[in-house]
Amino acid sequence: MDTAVTKWLEAIANEEFNQEDVDRSLRYAKDLERGLAKIRTFSQGVAIFGSARLDPDSKWCKLAHKLGFLLAQNGHPVITGGGPSIMEAANRGAYEAGGRSIGLNITLPHEQHINPYVTDQMEFHYFFARKVMLTMSSKVYVFFPGGYGTLDEYSEIQLLMQEGKMPKMPIFLIGKSFWKPLDRWFETKMQKSFKTINPKDRKLYKITDDITEVVKAANKIGHRSIYDNIYDTKQPSFKTI
């Protein structure tokens, strides 16, 4: 048995944790365990992130729909947070193309319910567990315009790549008008003024309006076996999440 697990069990036996701590940790573990089991049922695909609040008729939702359709046509599973707007549009595109359309949803008191265009779904209680699964289930990451949630998901994946906690895989920020001002702030404030990032850190992502670049990147990586996940591979160049 793993040493850390042994120590954890000993701590419980010695009543070093209160019951609420034990119950909370078991809820965390349950979310992660169920998530890992779910993502083993499909090969790594393309994760599409974006706002749950944009109008379904907006150009961004139409673009997400087209991207989902193209990815499915090329045999790539489309993975989203399972909600409305950008997520629903991408799932609908994949669904209409006859592809694998996955929704990894989150339990919220308002706003988000699983959209009707998923072929596979799971609902999480914890944001962090959901983010782990969205990351581990994907080989390419696509970010459409969004709010705090989209920025949180983007920055965490960017950080994991920057610090070598996951392999460097393609990140696309769709929408130059939305993302370019943020990129300029990264450059002028974080890189040049405060020197809190390096120039190479800004090369981890690509800002574009051309969704065919996403499809080309996914095709270049290729179709991994359903039994093969890059995070199972022991590579000296990175520490897996």
Which tags fit this structure?
7 strands, Rossmann fold, alpha/beta, seven-stranded parallel sheet, 8 helices, globular, 241 residues
Could you give a short description of this structure?
This protein is α/β, with parallel strands linked by helices and 241 residues long. It has helices spanning 3-13, 19-39, 59-73, 86-96, 127-136, 148-162, 176-193, 212-221, and strands at residues 45-49, 78-80, 101-106, 120-124, 138-143, 171-174, 206-208. It has eight helices and seven strands.
Radius of gyration, in angstroms, nearest whole number: 19 Å
User: Low-confidence segments, ≥5 residues, pLDDT <50?
Assistant: 236-240
| Number of helical stretches of at least 4 residues | 8
Q: Averaging pLDDT over every residue, what do you get?
A: 91
N-to-C SSE string, H for helix and E for strand: HHEHEHEEHEHEHEH
Strand arrangement, largest sheet? 4-3-2-1-5-6-7
Name the CATH class. Alpha Beta
Helix content: 40-55%
Q: Give the overall form.
A: globular
Number of strands: 7
Q: How much strand?
A: 5-15%
CATH topology: Rossmann fold
State the major sheet: 7 strands, parallel
Q: Which secondary-structure class do the elements indicate?
A: alpha/beta
Q: Which architecture per CATH?
A: 3-Layer(aba) Sandwich
User: What is the end-to-end distance?
Assistant: 21 Å
**Structural domain tally:** 1
